[in-house]
Amino acid sequence: MGRSKLHLESQIVRTLAEVLHDLEDPRVPPFVGVERVDVAPDLANAVVYVGLEPDSPAFAVLHHARRYIQGELAQRMRLRRIPRLKFVASEAAPAARGSRQRRYRLARAKPGPNGPSACR
User: Fold this and answer.
1) Residue 56 pLDDT exceeds 80
2) Minimal CA–CA distance to 32: which of 11, 59, 2, 4?
3) What percent of the chain has pLDDT over 70?
């Protein structure tokens, strides 16, 4: 893989994360993470791996907003041609969901009478 393709993929990941963060749709969770982007050799298509469950309704929103997202990407990256984006669930999404749930449970747990060490 060429260095320029790797550079383009990393640029797309960073810029897409910003675009998705700025997306003002309540159906898209604020913690959607762009795991990685695989750009085709001809640079016409790109698969975007996002940290969502495969059956999440946010996928329909991302698919519906794909042209807007591509336009924002082109404008922010100042490219004439942007690859067509296809959003898919990252393999790490179920593990990340479990990790978020554990952190949420720990955050909700109240410290014991002897401080935080009594929670163990």
Assistant:
1) yes
2) 59
3) 74
